[in-house]
Amino acid sequence: MNRLTGKVVAITGAARGQGRSHAVHMADEGADIIALDICADIATNEYPLATREDLEETARLVEKAGRRAITAEVDVRDRARLKQVLDDAVAELGGLHVVVANAGICPQGNHLPYKAYIDAFDVDFVGVVNTIHVGLDYLGEGGSVIVTGSIAGLVDQKDMANGGGPSGPGGAGYGMAKKMVRDYTKALALTLAPHKIRINAVHPTNVNTDMLHNMSMYRVFRPDLTEPTREDAEVVFPLLQAMPIPYVEPDDVSHAVVYLASDESRYVTGQQLFVDAGAGLKMGV
């Protein structure tokens, strides 16, 4: 406990899923939280995104842990709005020490228009860049940046973008974004190291969240079925991992995020931490 006492953390995609889990775990460790989320749907992303009520629940859980929470509805593709929100929140909370660039979408299906590629890439990479570049204005020595990647960044792009494949253009945009996250974090880590600001990426396998549990994703895993159920998909989910599990829990990722946010990782930078039950090993990495 108290590994993050005195720190202020900004988290995107904080209304539910991994983002909410990170917010709660970090609040439990003493951090005040700036919780950001779009709280609106994106047309090419067919599963519902988080709501304002979801974001308010994240804030309630942070406050239940005895910490302060500031929430704002913001699209990470809008850098000007991000800056305005962080200006106000940092002024109210008195600083910023950690940025968690977590917001993401994963449109799936070869029936989607090419705009699904644009939306996925813009949220999952441009949004990461916007969040970090705005956040760096406030970070000083000892600051930490943590990016949510994915084992999708290990998949050959031709397999993600083969036109007729089940992932479609959205999957191709998602995969390209996660590949670029790896090189971006390494390069930025070298740039920030002289300032003692560190940046690392955490790459999960399947995570037990709404991004995984929706019909579009089930169809990717079970293209042999027209209307696959969760039970149908869970038969094949374990094939990704070396360990015989279908997915990791958000808590499993949050433990890594807390470590990378804390001073325990003060000399850890540029790392690609796979919380993947051995999925990367199976893929030859």
From TrEMBL:
Cleavable signal peptide: none
InterPro entries the UniProt entry points to: NAD(P)-bd_dom_sf (IPR036291), SDR_fam (IPR002347), SDR_subfam_1 (IPR023985)
Gene3D superfamilies, alphabetized: NAD(P)-binding Rossmann-like Domain
A single MF term (Gene Ontology): oxidoreductase activity
A Pfam family this chain is assigned to: adh_short_C2
Keywords assigned: NAD, Oxidoreductase
SUPFAM superfamilies: NAD(P)-binding Rossmann-fold domains
Annotated PANTHER family: 15-HYDROXYPROSTAGLANDIN DEHYDROGENASE [NAD(+)]-LIKE, 3-OXOACYL-(ACYL-CARRIER-PROTEIN) REDUCTASE (AFU_ORTHOLOGUE AFUA_6G11210)
Family to which the UniProt record says this protein belongs: Belongs to the short-chain dehydrogenases/reductases (SDR) family.
Protein name: 3-ketoacyl-ACP reductase
